[in-house]
Amino acid sequence: MFNITGKFARNFTTKASSVRGNAVGGMIFLATVAITTYHLNSTTSYSDAEKEVTDVATVKKPKASPNMYKEMPKYIKKLQHTIVNELEKLEGVGGGKFVWDSWLRPEGGEGISCVLQDGNVFEKAGVNVSVVHGNLPAAMEKQMRARKKEGSVCHPHNPNAPTVHFNYRYFELRDKDDNSVDGGFFTKKSDPKAWWFGGGCDLTPSYLYEEDAKHFHQVIKQECDKNDLSYYPKFKKWCDEYFYIPHRQEARGVGGIFFDDLEDKDSDIIFKFVQDCGNSFLRSYIPIMQKRKDMPFTEEMKIWQQLRRGRYVEFNLVYDRGTKFGLATPGARIESILMSLPLTSRWQFKHEPAFHSREQEMLEVLKTPRNWI
Amino acid sequence: MFNITGKFARNFTTKASSVRGNAVGGMIFLATVAITTYHLNSTTSYSDAEKEVTDVATVKKPKASPNMYKEMPKYIKKLQHTIVNELEKLEGVGGGKFVWDSWLRPEGGEGISCVLQDGNVFEKAGVNVSVVHGNLPAAMEKQMRARKKEGSVCHPHNPNAPTVHFNYRYFELRDKDDNSVDGGFFTKKSDPKAWWFGGGCDLTPSYLYEEDAKHFHQVIKQECDKNDLSYYPKFKKWCDEYFYIPHRQEARGVGGIFFDDLEDKDSDIIFKFVQDCGNSFLRSYIPIMQKRKDMPFTEEMKIWQQLRRGRYVEFNLVYDRGTKFGLATPGARIESILMSLPLTSRWQFKHEPAFHSREQEMLEVLKTPRNWI
């Protein structure tokens, strides 16, 4: 859910460098909601980044909303409640309930992890919010890392029902002198020096239902198109590329959208897009679950689902940049980082789907990502 | 099972560099038997290594046996048969049988993977042998990588019974002109330019039985002591350090021994040590399995075992250098690389063993590795 990009690393370090130069601190702010593993998209190291000399303060940018640091958290907390409620409704009478696990970050910020385990419908589901901020550059690296610890995902029991994952996040950087902390948030005096949005959602079925993939993509495309016609094709491709398992030569699932560094329009305008995405999540996923959650299935199908969950583990532990980064961080909240892993999974030597089976059909789609619309 | 060390990378690359200089090729040879994941211990990159200028041919070494390239494969193939037979006996009447999967490497060499899945006693067990050789330096990197593909491990069903892993390997490097290939092996004309042994074995219980850990260590210590009194303390420590999961701050199991780069004595002498280790494997593991395989257990214990298997997956996917390297290799035999993963595993949010429970007892030992003897 916490996404540091190449651009971020550049801006951030450039800012940090100039800060070191004139002994003025900076503050960072990150608000994020996730049904997701979090991601870290940067391959730019700090030392590389420091070679760049562009000062972000001098780059012309679209307008930053002065109150986004309040608006985004307000929105994602509301969204978290809505989603948790709807997922619990899906669990039905006597079904699983989310456990709310809230934490405060001593250096500034808070988080709420909601996890449901071994329910009627979901094997494991999590909906997480975190809002963190901190000073720069003194504890920069440490703080940056300390923050990378969220992640969640919905893994249903029924092999006919797909796993889903989403996350949306907002980041900003301000001059330290411009702000003072008030009740866990800093109060703003000027516009942020740097800011952007990132996020996305994607679907991972064990068995292909074309209508489900189409529905999921249709809903998210509609929201993209309402905001910018270039978004869906661009972000769909980005998603296919990010959630790819090279050693299997397979996509993790049937995709969705993925974007980062979004700052090409005024922040109010992008915020509207992010809200459209967030608000459409239930509409994209719940109807699929209602159709699939009670379908009959065989033991063989359950085994196939568990093998697919194994692939999910492979992606998250081997490739997901946020997970890798988080695990390498001393003192990180490991339970939160690994929350996205399924409750159970399986590895079988040389498992090969039968010719023309539904398992083979699924594999073929994963090997050659399709356009669903 | 295939273990490239810093030293190897140095020797290897230095040799390769000098080979490029005088247009003479080199041949490498690797024989290995494993109940193990394989390991890759090098953090030295080829380019770094090339900066070193020591020519291995000029370094004084203990005597290399001229026929080790035949003796080691002969030994490990025999060992594989013995172990497979004994593990099948443990499965009992109507129990699981190993499937033999034999492969030839077009560029030179062969492998035999034996895998048993979902038997009476073992969830998943594998015993693998590979004997590979190839030319240097033309296809050096490709060949080196192509070879890193073995791995196996025994994961029992019963949570009272421990997972075990072992691997022993021999490596040598010769001048190309000194050899010609004969029936899949090269025939030798001179002594190898570089050679060494590596290997080890370790135990991973879900529940602590001190007597089991002591027995396992006692058997292996006896074999070490017969050969060199410095081996056990040194290799026991090396094992604890290698099979450590930093993000959990836990050892993977109760250890055993791990060694690499062993070339400080004549190769015949070290070969005897390796055979002592290999031959003692059944004596170290089978008695434990006989005691534990039919013990009653609860569903709760099975869940704890599955959580521990999740840790095994975490170690192998996140830290095991061979697995990481193998996964990054285009065209690698992924099924062989991931053979060491358990059939099933589990991740549960914030699972915490009850105070003074047997699960907590196990965790404490993993957090503070003990001396068992």
UniProtKB/TrEMBL annotation, chains A, B:
Assembly behavior: Homodimer.
Organism the protein comes from: Clydaea vesicula
Protein name: coproporphyrinogen oxidase
Keyword Oxidoreductase: yes
Protein's pathway: Porphyrin-containing compound metabolism; protoporphyrin-IX biosynthesis; protoporphyrinogen-IX from coproporphyrinogen-III (O2 route): step 1/1
Family classification: Belongs to the aerobic coproporphyrinogen-III oxidase family.
GO molecular function, one term: coproporphyrinogen oxidase activity
InterPro entries for the chain: Coprogen_oxidase_aer, Coprogen_oxidase_aer_sf, Coprogen_oxidase_CS
GO CC term (a single one): cytoplasm
EC number per UniProt: 1.3.3.3
One Pfam short name: Coprogen_oxidas
